[in-house]
Amino acid sequence: MADIDVVGLGVATLDILSLVDHFPSGEEIQRAEDMILQGGGPVATAIVALARLGARTAMLDAVGDDWRGDLIAAELEHEGVATRHLRRCAGCTSAMACVLVRKADGARTIVYLPGTTSELQAEDLPRHAIESARAIHVNGRHAAACRQACQWARQAGVLVSFDGGAGRYRPEMRGLVPLADVCIVAREFAERYTMESDLTAAAARLVSDGPRLVVITDGLRGSWVYPAGRPGFHQPAYPLPQTVDTTGCGDAYHGAFLFALLQHMRPEAAAAFASAAAALNARRLGGRAGLPSRAEVEAFLAERGVNP
Questions:
Q1: Which of 23, 37, 48, 260 has its CA 20 to 30 A from that of 214?
Q2: Are 290 and 282 in contact, with CB atoms under 8 Å apart?
Q3: How far apart are CA 93 and CA 70, in angstroms?
Q4: Across residues 109-130, what is the average pLDDT?
Q5: Which residues of 209-245 are buried (b: 16+ CB within 10 A; e: fewer)?
Q6: 43 φ, ψ to 5°?
Q7: What residues contact residue 221 under an 8 Å CB cut-off, 6+ apart?
Q8: What is the pLDDT, as a whole number, of residue 2?
Q9: The pLDDT value given to residue 1
């Protein structure tokens, strides 16, 4: 798989997303403004974001041989993501989520059903695919396999990108951060990992664990970028006239930041590029419908006088 830029290792899901006037507070029937069926999952969506931008990508996961797994695989393939190492597990179901999106502000509430597949183990991984890629992108799912993949990547000089999402911190992830070259985490993850509420102190702790670039994201408040050995800086979020859905915006940021780094952009340019991609993704219902092309990101930034 020497033709692959980025290999993703994580969980691919199927999402049902409904645009609603309000979140139910009790038993009721409500007519949706819109409804779509779409693939999801943090790493999988970041990988699709990379593919939309022009990267050659592949996804590693275990999904069921059910209709949900069929749709998950078909959508990835439609986006140009290689699925030759996507394991299909006989007799198992694939993960699914129901997402209600509030029309007024794009806020979400999520109900999630895990699949019945077992986590991938180290022996399930295509080592050559990992070692021949330019980067791997992980978030700690398939824990044992994830650690091994990161170790192989580091030994082979492959860039390791780690996604620490909000609400996803677990103590065992402490072993992954030192293996990451690029560590992009939500503010809540950073605070729990470091036990620091001050972002500069939290970033310093994360950088001291080994990553050469740490980014702490905080939604509409933007992101704080800390290259090792250099002063950190703040990248504001780009507001849109109307936000439809914030699902997948963080994943779009991850994918776009990694894409920018692979294009040899400096951290300042990469942060602007990623923030633009995240903003553009909020234009449409669903975590992937609004994922932009490279030309769209560059046009968005040019309108704001930014040349990454």
A1: 48
A2: yes
A3: 11
A4: 96
A5: bbbebbbbbbeeebbbbbbeeeebeebebbeeeebbb
A6: -70, -45
A7: 237
A8: 57
A9: 45
Please give the pLDDT value at position 88.
Answer: 97
Residue showing tokens 């029937």: 29
Tokens of 203: 């970033």
Q: Evaluate if residue 101 carries a pLDDT over 90.
A: yes
SS3 (DSSP) at 2: coil
Closest Cα partner for 289 from 98, 79, 102, 70? Answer: 79
Backbone angles phi, psi at 79, to 5 degrees: -80, 0
What would the DSSP string read from start to end of 255-283?
A: HHHHHHHHTT--HHHHHHHHHHHHHHHTT
Q: Which residues of 5-44 are buried (b: 16+ CB within 10 A; e: fewer)?
A: bbbbbbbbbbbbbbbbeeeeeeeeeeeeeeebebbbbbbb
Q: What is the mean pLDDT of the chain?
A: 96
If we measure between CA atoms, which residue out of 294, 302, 245, 268 comes closest to residue 15?
245
CATH architecture, range 6-10+46-61+120-303: 3-Layer(aba) Sandwich (3.40)
Cα atoms in the 13 Å half-sphere on the side-chain side of 150: 27
Place of tokens 């993850």: 189
Structure tokens, 131: 């070692």
Q: Determine the average pLDDT of the residues in 132-137.
A: 98
Domain boundaries, the chain: 6-10+46-61+120-303
